[in-house]
TrEMBL record, chains A, B, C, D, E, F:
Enzyme class at the top of the EC tree: isomerase
Protein known as: Tautomerase
Family from the record: Belongs to the 4-oxalocrotonate tautomerase family.
Coiled coil: none
Organism this protein belongs to: Pseudoalteromonas luteoviolacea NCIMB 1942
Assigned keywords, A-Z: Isomerase
Enzyme nomenclature, EC number: 5.3.2.-
Length: 67, 67, 67, 67, 67, 67
């Protein structure tokens, strides 16, 4: 019955990558904790880079500096 | 002072349904725990079906198989 | 497949009250959104009154003033 | 290593305001808890006013009544 | 910069299992999304079985029936 | 009506520090977004250092290495 919430910046995560995250996270619950996959939820939140901060800065600004 | 967060897939939840969820969840806090409705928060997140997984699969794929 | 998270202060919520919250929240999903109860999760977090603030104040302090 | 999640209604929060929230929240962690800013995350969620309820009502409806 | 939150029931998860969850979830972010591990957070919440419901029932009750 | 959730490791955060976090976070909402403090919630989660990972490692292990 695990619930896994993955938060990443919304920088072109593809449908295939989301599927790989869901499969990998579910597999991890089965392998490490012997959990039942049919009641394992994985939810992915894609967060705008203006709305995510690290080290006092917006990720959108950090990306601009790096460019 | 309760805080209730409801996460559902974003499959055409209407404004009226959202209102019903807010009223019902608030009522539950009042009835069961005698909480004060004026400081009861209900937040609804609608999650894209590509971003929600169950049983190793994306909900968007499960919906396709059922069609 | 809904996921509901209920956060309340940890002020002697009984096992029966928790059960009532779980049943009521699940029922709300079935009635309003026609969701499947067998994949409806309800999680209750009980938060220490020192760790919950409203109106600039800790709930533990608000409770003391009221006493 | 703190993680701060700020949820507000999506009512025209500007990029500058988001930056001020990120800086202020990070500063709070440094000042109060002596945390390291380079591993302090701040995430802002903007929630539609139809999806946020208080006192049994949708915020979108409360805003309409006030107008 | 991903943030992963894993919620499981508090049924004797060992320190070694927690470490395996942290490593596995971080590795998933690196492999699938090419993320930087030094800013990847994994947080595990262990939830009391009285506080987790599925299919209208508390997990503590479901465990009792199965015994 | 903001909701702020602060997650930190459970390393002897005092009641006074929690109060400072609650006041500071509420003040930030008032100053930056002109929000109403009486409906501003601040919730603090203290997470065991075994349950928090960064850079593949448990914080409890990182603390041991530093000692």
């Amino acid at each position: 019955m695990p619930y896994i919430n993955i938060k990443v910046t919304d920088e072109n995560v593809t449908k295939e990558q989301k599927r790989a995250l869901i499969r990998g996270a579910t597999e991890l619950m089965v392998k490490v904790l012997n959990k039942e996959p049919s009641t394992t939820f994985v939810l992915i939140d894609e967060v705008n880079t203006d709305n995510w901060g690290i080290g006092y800065e917006q990720v959108s600004e950090i990306r601009n500096i790096i460019k």
